[in-house]
User: Fold this.
Amino acid sequence: MSVISVKNLSKSFKVKQKEKGFIGSVKSIIQPNYKVIKAVNDISFQVDEGEVVAFIGPNGAGKSTTIKMLTGILYPDSGHIDVLGIDPTKARKKLAYEIGTVFGQKEQLWMHLTAYDNFKFFSAIYDIPEKEAEKRIEELSKLFDLEKFINTPVRNLSLGQRVRCEFVASLIHKPKVLFLDEPTIGLDPVVKENVRKLIKKMNKEYHTTIFLTSHDISDIEKLCKRVIIINDGTIVMDDSMSNLKYHYMDKKIIEVKLKSKINFNNVKGIKVLKEKENNSRLEINTNETNLTTILKFINPENIIDINISNIPLEEIISAIYRKE
Amino acid sequence: MLQAVKNQFNVTVKTIKYGLMREMINKTSFIMNVSFMILNNASFIIQWIVIYSLKDNVGGYSFNQVLLLWAIAASTYGFSHFIFKKSYSLSDIITNGKLDSFLVQPKNVLISAITSDIEVSALGDILYGYIVLAISGLTLTRFLLFTLFSITGAIVITDIAVLLGSLSFWFGKSDMIADTGNSLMTNFATYPDGIFKGLARILLLTIIPLGLTTYFPVWIITTFNLKLTLIVIISTIIITLFTFIIFYKGLRRYSSTNLMISKI
Assistant:
């Protein structure tokens, strides 16, 4: 059953243009010049209940604008949005009871209050009765391991602890869909890994549908089974993670350390990515050649060390961004 | 509907409570903020004592009426700045995308945004208003009328601040216009209306609705007038409804931002 349905959604922004320098500033007052930027251009997609979907794209691709339209922050110019059977443009408040949001760049917690007081405040926002709120805070504190610092003012918490509290504040009303806009931005690798585990846990324990944007490929690789890629406001790919990797299976990366140097340039099916003394990093196109031929060409006797791997997901996604 | 109003009220009360909790962390600063505001306001009364030692009547107001004028102006300003502090920085909230966090909550965006912080020194203005009212003569009727008009006045000046702040939906950064407009309201509020003549007087009773916030209340508290009281209440409701309409019309043009934001 689909919980998010988007049809022909578009949104433009009018951005003031200014010539450089002081004269440019004066000119822009007398004769302002505007440029219309199509942030989201006629996109359509659906998300099913319980799915964890990555909605990714380069900076300025239209990710945040789309999420903001789905959550009722922005009004679309045209198109139709349906989240849990609710149109955000017509029933924003009704929708807010059903969804949760974590914007990595915008903290919603009060810094001077303790985490516990913040959760009580959010319970009041979502009209949760006192007793139920207490129970929910206790349950989430255990799940997110907050017990040690729940009574500490948020300003005194580490970034990782704060992010965990942000998640709890967003989950206090048991949302059916969670929108995460770069939730791991600025976090160290250990905290990132913890946050990912928590997202997985939420999806598994509460069957929460998760719609995630992130520039961190590991977030996507470790959390999502489906990827929607947006670029210049249009969807350029909507596929499962396994299919995404499969499409690029015709390319392999070979990192090899040799006893004596070989010239790989102009060899069919080989693209030299990096070369330093007897070490080479090569991209092999398996449609033009095969690994056996390459290994024979190198000569196993000449190999000190070798590593054969798939193209990293980061490079696959970068290639899609570059429309290659 | 009634439940929704109750829930919104509950959240507003909690916001004020948490705001006070934050301010009370630093006890000395809290007491100094409130008491210095009272002293600051009291200093202006001295100049009126000097003026009334030379003249019996200024713009048709007795000294007692000037006290009442100051009391209602201070209290109106106090209630507005204490509860609706953020209406005075609405332009910044709009242009810097700070409405996002209120838009994802199941509450009224405008009320949540403008009540999201308190100005503790404004408590001094409220207290000052009631102290001066007591000096000018305290009866139960005067107390109740004074409280009623402090609230209606606070709502009207908040409406003006919201209307001026909402200009940012159409014109981008408009904090200077908003600041100027809000200062106009405060600056004229502490002078007897009789000293203003012609166009200035018309403007003060219409576009700059000081009639509603200070002059009419002073007249009514001095000599009760039911018709004028109803005019104040009904006009406050109409201006508030108009403010909500304009804000929500503007909200459709809200463009948010991706700036890093945290609540302090």
